Amino acid sequence: MDKPVNNAAWLLVAPVFLIVAFSAILPIMTVVNYSVQDTFGNNQFFWNGLGWFQELLDPSTELGGRFLDALWRNLLFSAIILAIEVPLGILVALSMPRDGWKVAATLVIMALPLLIPWNVVGTIWQVFARADIGLGGWAINALGIDYNYTGDPLAAWITIVVMDVWHWTSLVALLCYAGLKSIPDAYYQAARIDGASRWAIFTTIQLPKMKRVLLIAVLLRFMDSFMIYTEPFVLTGGGPGNATTFLSIDLVKIALGQFDLGKAAAMSLVYNLIVLALCWVFYTVMTHAGTERRQEENPA
Amino acid sequence: MASITLDGLAHAYRPDPRGPQDYALKEINHVWRQGGAYALLGPSGCGKTTLLNIISGLVIPTRGRILFDDRDVTQLPTEARNIAQVFQFPVVYDTMTVRENLAFPLKNRKMPREAIARRVEEIASRLGLNSVLDRKASNLTADAKQKISLGRGLVREDVAAILFDEPLTVIDPHLKWQLRSSLKELHRALDLTMIYVTHDQTEALTFADTVVVMHDGAVVQTGTPEELFERPAHTFVGHFIGSPGMNVLPAKVEGRTAHVGDVAIALDRGYAALPVGGRIELGVRPEFATLAAPGTGLPVKVTRIEDIGRARIARIEISGNPAAAMVPEDLSLDGDSAGLTLDPRQIHIYADGVLVPGEAAGREGAM
User: Fold this and answer.
1) Domains, chain B, ranges and CATH?
2) pLDDT for position B219
3) How would you class A156 by CB atoms within 10 Å of its CB: exposed for 0-12, middle for 13-18, buried for 19 or more?
4) What is the pLDDT of residue A1?
């Protein structure tokens, strides 16, 4: 088919190009520019080639070591919160009411943590978990357990994990609830007629029907937790020591604390690539599940 | 194997029903004979699905009892009844193969593995599912999925009745006939009670030996397809069954003559006991009303003639009341006036919507 050539089209897309250029391309190119240079302040820059990248990917160097440590912390954190939030979210969704006024009430209550700004969440838990004046921290100590998240790395980790679970399990639960609501009653009725047990109903009907929303939930929670910054920054500031220094926190430390723009730029590029790669993996998995679904609906 | 008795059954979805308007299902007494093929026919919202769900145990009725033979099952849960149900939209377990789907109800009932395998093979070959036994059930067409739903009921040897809730809704039209006739075959082969809910009169009349017509939460007539056609017990049945439906004309009856407007129609039977002040109507199916040349029979005005392929149907007015009649092939009309002949035995009189039998004086034994 012949399409009419109209050069006015360029004019119409130009604003988009401009916006993308200023909001994405130019900043990223600036970062790329920094990543191949070194600076000692004074706005003086020296060419460093791929030096920062070589250092970053070599764990024996100072920069590579701390990068790898932070990366492991990040992955461990994501794994832990996924392992808790996904099953817990499913469990919450399964026990949510199906109809009546309780539905609205539950949904509002569930949505509350999601509506709180992240640094406020951090502040809430920072105060709540304090051993001296925080209700939670004080109560745990009153039970005879020595708990101090500012001094004990394990306590700090537990606090951050609990905070994240508190903040984000609702999201997983709400997504699962939406998935559960889309299952027609006939499935449950058929399962009752077939004499299926509660567990069989879960594994043969509910879980398969929730597969797609679960994938979205896992993707969202993984990406979000992998890029977590605000809450641990407010709560622990990355400490004690470097125990809760995740990649994003470390990045800010290097860039704004030490003003090592070159190192920070190289690190943020690699960080960005990792996020992109993982996104791609999830995207592939999800679209694959999607095509499977389409075949189900339109069998050849 | 059992007959199913509905004894004074009624159901209201609200917990404190006050009057009849609160009942989705008004009192019903009925016996579904063992091995019968029944259709439950009625428009959407007439209570037929409620009735079906009560029989299968998904809904516990507000009043009345359900007996399977002599066993009271009113309060029994679904899984404890010998009932299988096929739903409007095919229900298959997505993650399982067809074989696993069919085996599922037996596995849940802890049947030995070899017995399950044998039974599944047997039912699969009956339903023509052998070739797809090891495929994922979710990848099949809608009609194959409905067969799987049905198969999950058939594998259970204890099943006394299979309930169908508008099972052909999502099936392609050209497969509907096929699936319906395989249902009929299964019914003949297996001696099962089948209750088939539908709002489609063709489906009901072709599938069932006995059709139960429901309207507004109540059963208005139970009968064979012929009975429903020839002697509708209620004007609703007359309207709902038949295409076009029965002509229902407001009438005054005096002795053996009915007056529709200023047209007098001779009746075959006498109606002495008509309620005074009730709404009296005359009903006659278009199939028993034949258009003729002007001057023959009753004078009518023709408004339109429709050719529906196998016949021509005239839209007419009998002293201002719209009606439909058959047009004989050799009849040609000039202008809009014509005559109408009615088969007197097929004229029925209704009082407030309900059929009045009438006395066939001088002909004893006739209806």
Assistant:
1) 4-234 (3.40.50.300), 243-356 (2.40.50.140)
2) 87
3) buried
4) 56
Residue with tokens 């109209």: A6
ipTM of the complex: 0.75
Beta carbons of B297 and B341 less than 8 angstroms apart? yes
Asked if A186 and B139 come within 8 Å (Cβ–Cβ), the reply is no
- Tokens standing for residue B171: 């099936």
Confidence (pLDDT) at B367:
42
Classified as helix, coil or strand, B202 is helix
Report the b/e string of A108-121 with b at 16+ CB within 10 A.
eebeebeeeeeeeb
Q: Is A291 on the interface with B (CB under 8 A)?
A: no
CA distances to A131, A137, A151, A156, A232 from A141, rounded to whole Å, are: 7, 6, 14, 15, 22
Give me the mean pLDDT over the B121-145 stretch. 86
Residue B137, chain A, CB below 8 Å: the answer is no
Contact A187 B91 (CB under 8 A): yes
Cβ burial of B118 (10 Å; 0-12, 13-18, 19+) is exposed
- Give the Cα separation of B89 and B202 in Å (integer): 20
* Residues spanned by the domain of A14: 8-296
Which of A186, A197, A204 is nearest residue B93 as measured by Cβ atoms? A204
**Is there a domain that residue A153 lies in?**
yes
Total domains in the fold of chain A: 1
Is residue A174 domain-resident? yes
pTM of full prediction above 0.90: no
Cα separation of B323 and B339, whole Å? Answer: 13
Contact residues, chain A, for B103 at CB < 8 Å: none
User: How many angstroms away from the CA of A290 is the closest CA of chain B?
Assistant: 14
Phi, psi at A32, each rounded to 5°: -60, -40
Residue B268's contacts (CB-CB under 8 Å, 6 or more residues apart) are B256, B344, B345, B347, B358, B360
CA atoms within 13 A on the CB side of B313: 17
Q: Residue B356: is its pLDDT beyond 50?
A: yes
In this complex, how many residue pairs, one in chain A and one in chain B, have their CB atoms less than 8 Å apart? 59
From chain B, pick out residues whose CB is under 8 angstroms from the CB of A190.
85, 87, 91, 149, 152
What DSSP designation does A21 have? I
Q: A188 in a domain, yes or no? A: yes
Edge-to-edge order in the sheet of strand B83-86: B83-86, B161-165, B193-198, B37-41, B210-215, B218-223
Give whole-number Cα distances, B309 to A140, B143, B290, B306, B313, in Å. 85, 30, 17, 9, 10
Distances (CA, A) of A96 to A174, A180, B58, B322: 10, 10, 21, 56
| Beta carbons of B105 and A299 less than 8 Å apart | no
Distance between CA A289 and CA A211 in Å, rounded?
9
Q: Is residue A21 part of a domain?
A: yes
Tell which residue, B215, B219, B272, B235, has the closest CA to residue B348.
B235
The structure tokens 């016996």 sit at: B31
Helix ranges, B219-327 (H) = 225-230, 235-240
Interface test with A, best of B49, B78, B100 (most A CBs within 10 A): B78
Residue A220 contacts by C-beta under 8 Å, 6 or more apart in sequence? Answer: A171
**Tens-digit pLDDT profile for residues B191-207:** 888 899 988 888 888 88
Q: What is the mean pLDDT of residues A37-50?
A: 79
CATH label of the domain that carries residue A21: 1.10.3720.10
B73-112 residue pLDDT tens:
888 888 888 888 888 888 899 888 899 999 998 988 888 8
Inter-chain touch A189–B58, beta carbons under 8 Å: yes
The Cα B62–Cα B243 span in angstroms is 36
